[in-house]
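Hey, quick one: can you model this chain's 3D structure?
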Amino acid sequence: MSARDMPARAQGRPAKRVSSVNSARSANPATGQIAVPSRLQTPKSQPTNGDVVFDAKAFLARAGLGKRILNLKKNETAFAQGDPSDAIFYVQKGKLRVSVTSANGKEATITLVGEGEFLGEDCMVSAHPLRLSTATAMTECALLRITKAEMVRVLHEEPELSEMFTSFLLARNARIQADLVDQLFNSSEKRLARILLLLAQFGKESKPETVVPKISQEVLAEMIGTTRSRVSFFMNRFRKLGFVEYNGEIRVHNTLLNIFLQE
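Sure thing. Here's the predicted structure for all 263 residues.
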């Protein structure tokens, strides 16, 4: 009979194992179990006095290590063709004309650069040690000159500025392609209309404005690849049609878009 009692006593063993587990759980401090997950769920603290959050606009607004403010008067140059290509510029205020000069002295305007744009960015991607163009102020300008080494460092370390600079390069590339198509397929009249609309900021989020600064017909002729006399002819025609007004300054109306609806 004692042998038959053995299974009955064996059935009681699971109850002992449960009680031993419960005792093991009760042996762990409750505070230890709560503290670890609570630390993991705590939101990341905001930067304190010892931490600095990078701000791209602030970086491009003031001088610092590898950066300095360059103030230009009208007709002064930020850099000239043949200068060392060792820095990039950010236009804080004003407009500049970028041009190239051939070996025989013929000059051509490549583009106009305004506030919020980079200038001389080719030094970041080209191994050529010298500038291939000249940047001349069309108005009083304030530029932030950033050394190539400093710009490379910040682009690698700060995604915000890297994204901003990449967006600028993509927009600049799209503009260059559009300029090429315009030069190849459009008449000089349409090319002039397009340049005036771009200068007046039509198609941008900002409100269209009077073309500032005053641009000579020679510069417009260089930009569209025609003669000054042709530009004068088209400007007079635009004025008679009510597309533009100019008396020292040029004001562009959105009706100038009608030029592109004509065949």
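One thing worth noting: Confidence is low (pLDDT under 50) at residues 8-12, 15-50.
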